[in-house]
Amino acid sequence: MSLLNQLFSRGVFGTRCKTCLNLAISRIKLLQNKRDVQLKQMRKEIAQFLQAGQEPIARIRVEHIIREQNIGAAYDILELFCEFVLARVPIIENQKDCPQELREAIASIIFAAPRCSDVPDLLHIKNLFTTKYGKEFVSAASELRPDSGVNRMIIEKLSVQAPSGEAKLKVLREIAEEYNLTWDYSKTEAEFGKNHEDLLAGAKQVSGSAMPSQNPSKSSSFTSAPPTMKHPEMPVNNKQAYEHLEASRPPNNKSHLNTREIEPSPKNGDLHSDDAKRETRSQSGDVLEKAQAAIAAAERASAAARAAASLVNTNGFGPSKLEGRSS
Fold this sequence. Notes:
Elements lengths: L1 H50 L3 H33 L1 H6 L8 H10 L8 H13 L1 H8 L9 H6 L7 H14 L7 H8 L5 H30 L7 H13 L10 H4 L10 H42 L4 H8 L1
């Protein structure tokens, strides 16, 4: 039973593989004919741009021409590989492993299948080889592992990298020679020779250089803020009077004074010096009045204490009388 299944599976693989390969070859030829017509039209348009002096547009359009030319070259190679594999289908069908002489062709088809969306038949061929040789073989070709066997020209032509300035200048000169144009390519050559700076790196440099200019403004704003909250300085004479009052005031009555009331209130820096002087004078006068009130209160308290002591002595509550009562 297993032998019959193997024979049946071989026949199915061979039939499907031949069908997909024939369809891929026919589709590639059709696409190549369309691409040739499009390339001729695009080259003619670029020649018109060069003749009209619109070189910037021609420099942009030439990249699309190079891209189409690379895809066309890759399709030519793939067409040859498909024809080669089609002729060797009986050998592939009879052998379990991939023949060494067919490894490059099969690996190149597997690698190009997801990158050539115009030829969906290549994806069907890839699925057939996945069933035949396993996922490891297919993943090695798709990921370009060492010894995968993928054709280097296929890798280069299907690359998504932008063409170099030399390649673009070469195609523009070929177009100019094809249409017999007298075109001075010195400006274009100089433009392609420039090393254009990365915009992201330039933005980082600008932002980095702009930061130091912002920091001084912030620091100046912070440094300029304290003068607005700075207390006005008292004149020298008022300071001396205040120190004299502090020295002459009794130590027990210091708690009666409120330190917050003594401190001058903060004023804005926009006030004139005359207003600040008047305010300091009024504040020093308030301080003097409070100090005098505190001294008067202290004197009244001491007078009351002396009166109480004399009252005690006059009523006969002296120490000798107290000793007699205790005895």
